[in-house]
Amino acid sequence: MNIGIDKIGFFAPPYYVDMTKLAEARGVDPDKFTIGIGQDEMALAPVTQDAVTLAANAALQIIDEEDKEKIDLVLFGTESGIDHSKSAAVYVHNLLGLNPYARSVELKQACYSATAGIQMAKGHIALNPDSKVLVIGADIARYGLGTPGEATQGAGAVAMVISKDPKLLLLENDSTYFTNDIMDFWRPLYSENAYVDGKFSNEQYILFFNKVWEKYKERTGRTLADFAALCFHTPYTKMGWKALRTILEEGTEEVQEKLKANYQTSIRYNRRVGNIYTGSLYLSLLSLLEENDTIQAGEKIGLYSYGSGAVGEFFTGILQPDYKKYLHINRHEELFRSREEVSVEKYEEIFQNTLPSDGASIELESDNDPSPIYLSGIQDHKRIYVNRIR
Ligand code: HMG
């Protein structure tokens, strides 16, 4: 059976910071952020957007009435969970008005969990060919003001419908994966911000990539020449490039040029959003699908997923006929166009405006958040969400 990504939607919060201005405010050469790190803009979530609202807003764009009936599994990958017990997937299930006869679960393994969701979704569709699975990756990446990680923050979500006979990307069954218990990046339960061993995390990201790529070649006999493009988990856009260049010489000059050009296309959206952790690889895939003019149906795309701690996976998909027809390019152009740039001062204010951590109730000002779905407050320890368009 052919199983894969049938639909893909993306959402970013309504604010962003210009990386050149952030660099100037931090006394850093702007080229470090725009070239050395490879980021132009950083998406910023107001207090009225959390992992649940980002996810629901992304899914809202792609779910139609038939999907609402057929989705019987919601798999929500996030490391920005809002509750130790209740899964974020249950809130999203309700906000979207999905068929109640469904399973809804949150998955965690840093930036890897949406990929775990996709692989589990494939198994579910194989057993239940007429159902559909909603897989979401949504996160708010926070390292703290003035930290080395600050330039690699971001916020957003990617939602995908996985089904049989997919319209976008057929997922093949030859993925390779690797786990090792390391401390490159983590966020203890008591901390709003992530802890990170930056250089070590970069090294491990590349090491894991080399391991799964080598295993993939050994297992399948395929080479770089089999691929139209490789997409990477993108904590910042220079990172994927650092991994890609370790294997580029395995290809002819022509293959190298093609992969380099398509890598640039695959990071256009990420350059404007920053790290969205679980959704980052899929934002890169979306960027490639929507922005390229050269990749044809039938061509193969490689995807490298990495989640600190750490798990890495390399898997592949085949582009489906007329895939461009089923994308929402205009909607995403509008999403970027409608975002508001905020000054560095305003960013710091928004960043520090967090929810009460002592159990107090709060009513939030929603006038500054035009998103269809937002958090309106907390009452009796319960988050109150509003779907403006239901
Ligand atoms: P840093 O130490 O401040 O930066 O933080 P740096 O000194 O290494 O400089 C960065 C790059 O800019 C270097 O290039 C410099 O040469 C260059 P590179 O050597 O790396 O190619 N540079 C300049 N370029 C042009 N003009 C200039 C200039 N100055 C310097 N004037 C670091 C960088 C990434 C370590 C930091 O931002 C950080 O800790 N980020 C968070 C961790 C991270 O993103 N790790 C990525 C791999 S782990 C991962 O992907 C998992 C993750 O998504 C979490 C999860 O799984 O949940 C993070």
Tally of alpha and pi helices: 13
CATH homology superfamily of the largest domain: Thiolase/Chalcone synthase
Oligomer: single chain
What is the distance, rounded to the nearest whole angstrom, between the alpha carbons of the first and last residues? 35 Å
Main beta sheet? 10 strands, mixed
Strand content: 25-35%
Structural class: alpha+beta
The helix content is: 25-40%
Radius of gyration from CA coordinates:
20 Å
CATH architecture of the largest domain: 3-Layer(aba) Sandwich
Q: What ligands can be seen in this structure?
A: 3-hydroxy-3-methylglutaryl-coenzyme A
Q: How many structural domains in the coordinates?
A: 2
CATH level 3 topology of the largest domain: Peroxisomal Thiolase, Chain A, domain 1
Shape label: globular
Question: What's the CATH first level of the largest domain?
Answer: Alpha Beta
Low-pLDDT windows of residues: none
EC number: 2.3.3.10
Enzyme class: transferase
Domain Hydroxymethylglutaryl-coenzyme A synthase N-terminal: 2-164
Protein name: Hydroxymethylglutaryl-CoA synthase
Descriptive notes:
It contains 13 helices and 18 strands. It has 390 residues and is of the alpha+beta class. Helices cover 35% and strands 25% of the residues. The strands form four sheets. Strands 1, 4, 5, 6, 7, 8, 9, 12, 13 and 14 form a ten-stranded mixed sheet that branches. A three-stranded mixed sheet has the order 3-2-15. A three-stranded antiparallel sheet has the order 16-17-18, with helices on one face. The protein has helices spanning 19-25, 30-37, 51-60, 65-70, 88-96, 113-127, 198-220, 237-244, 253-266, 268-273, 280-291, 329-338, 344-352, and strands spanning 3-11, 15-18, 41-44, 71-77, 103-107, 132-141, 154-164, 169-171, 176-179, 185-186, 195-196, 229-232, 300-307, 311-319, 340-341, 362-363, 373-379, 382-387. The chain folds into two domains: 3-168 and 327-387, Thiolase/Chalcone synthase (Peroxisomal Thiolase, Chain A, domain 1, 3-Layer(aba) Sandwich), CATH 3.40.47.10; 170-322, Peroxisomal Thiolase, Chain A, domain 1, CATH 3.40.47. 3-hydroxy-3-methylglutaryl-coenzyme A (HMG) binds at residues 29, 31-32, 35-37, 79, 110-111, 148-149, 151-152, 184-185, 196, 198-199, 201-202, 205, 233, 235-236, 238-239, 275, 277, 306-308.
